[in-house]
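WARN  no MSA supplied for this record, continuing single-sequence
INFO  ligand: 2'-deoxycytidine-5'-monophosphate
INFO  echoing inputs
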Amino acid sequence: MTAPPVIAIDGPAASGKGTVAQGVAAALRLHYLDSGSLYRLVALKASREGVAANDEARLAALAKSLEIAFDKRRIRLQGLDVTEELRGEPVSAAASRIAVLPSVRSALLSRQRSFRRPPGLVADGRDMGTVVFPDAVLKIYVTASAEVRAERRYKQLIEKGNSVTLEGLLLDIRERDARDSARAAAPLKAAADALILDTTDMTIDQSIAFVLERAKAVLKSIRA
Ligand code: DC
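INFO  complex generated
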């Protein structure tokens, strides 16, 4: 029996990959994995339990034992809804730091792969096409200029009533890009066989349409 097909959508912070991946999963009625939320959950649990961001063995154990539930758009950690807290800047920064640790990454591998169920999966992250699902039927690398990504994040956070500055966010994004790209374990990079989608001058709908068109063609050919 062949494994359910995976569409891998990778890219840097605030590139729009999450929105694109969710839109594609909904349109095609496929399962959806937001792999970044797993790193965020490990970071949140570690901070709650006072585990240091460089204590690799304890962080890996914590990653293995995470008790989580994804329920539509809400995410629960040990029964409590942590959806908003997960998106905040402290958790974002901590997640990027613990994501450099190879034992944490391997502790999350089988959990990520368990999302692959019929009729198929759209997975979003940094290493979906390179490490977690190298046999994905379609790999898209979503990117946009750091300035445009900072502006998008700025609008989202301001709408939610956060007080942030555009300059601060741009710095955060550049730092996070550097850390995600420079790490030895599964660095952020486009898979050799990925299509590059630069959304700098594109709307969300245009970006989703770009991926949908290719996804439909690939799924049709493997189901034929
Ligand atoms: O996609 P995100 O912003 O929610 O990801 C949070 C952090 O987790 C990000 O800094 C990098 C890391 N991450 C990763 O290393 N590998 C993934 N597949 C997803 C996220």
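The longest strand covers residues 138-143.
INFO  checksum written, moving to next record
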